[in-house]
Fold:
Amino acid sequence: MNFENELDVNQIVDICDAYINKLAQPIVRDSLDNIYSYAMNSMRPEALNMSREIISDRFISVAPKMYFCRIWDNEGVRLKEPKLKVTGLSMVRSTTPKYFRAKLKEVMNVLIDGDIDTVMDYSNDILESLSEQNLKDISQNSSVTSVDYTWNEDKQRYLRWTGEKFLPAPMNSRASIKHNEYITKNNIKVKEIEPGDKISYIPLKTPNPAGTDVIAFQNPKVLDDLLEYVNYKELFEKTYMSAIQLITDPIGWVLEKSDEVINDEEW
Structure:
């Protein structure tokens, strides 16, 4: 019998629940009592306990203990509306920009039900919408520990001497240094970024008037003359696409790749 053509989801969940409770679980329970307990020389096999976790209609496993699924019943509690459960996948992090955080939660509903074309259409809509968003909502946000780095011409990097070795400037420090250089050069009346400040930073296409591929800001007016150089494609791929590929790559969905060369430095 094809249940999906004759029963709604809740009726199918009822059948699964009854099967687990009345047939499957007693068999497993018996195995615990008579096999596992015997092998382990358990003094009180009745103390062993088990219960099922979830009933799900869609389940995508990426690796052991790394999956996401849509659940209708959670440990015997029937949900009024299904919800997504994500385990072991860091698609959304505390540093994920506000706009991408919301879109990644939405796309998981597309991933759980859709196909690769649906996911790509949805993702392309997000890419096209980026230029319309508030810069703060799509930028990476962090605090900056130090701006005490010096440009090294030979290494073509900002470095800081620790007394033992040279350390390269992390992305947020480099972006902050470039912010300070840019506002000084262009006499922009905003505060310089200092150690301990909360900042946002965003990638830029090069060449550009700031002479950098990334720049920090606290006041968005710093970017008034740089808006045409904001690299929305890189922002999209590093923040959004890299997150959903945690799921699509293991299950064999090959998403469209950018032709641009992306700097692998984490930001």
Remarks:
- Strands lie at 54-63, 66-74, 77-87, 140-143, 150-152, 157-161, 166-168, 198-203, 214-217.
